[in-house]
Amino acid sequence: MLMPHPAVLRRLVDEYEALTQAGPAEAKPQHQAQARDLAYTLCVSTGTRDVRHALETARQWLDAASRADAAISPPTDQDPHVYA
Question: Model's pTM, two decimal places?
């Protein structure tokens, strides 16, 4: 299965959460439509059928991507294994 780039996935999660934070009763119709579109995109991107599962999967993938980036980050001057 193809996986979305972490930056794209982060943007989708952030936008969906921002739109749904106020709750459905207080949301404007255009925000509700945008939230539905984002929910669909999250589900397609994560291979799930429910936005709750999509968000959970997206967070797991983002955590894994963050850990992988930390593991391969370039050495700094403070790293004792860097030779001058």
Answer: 0.77
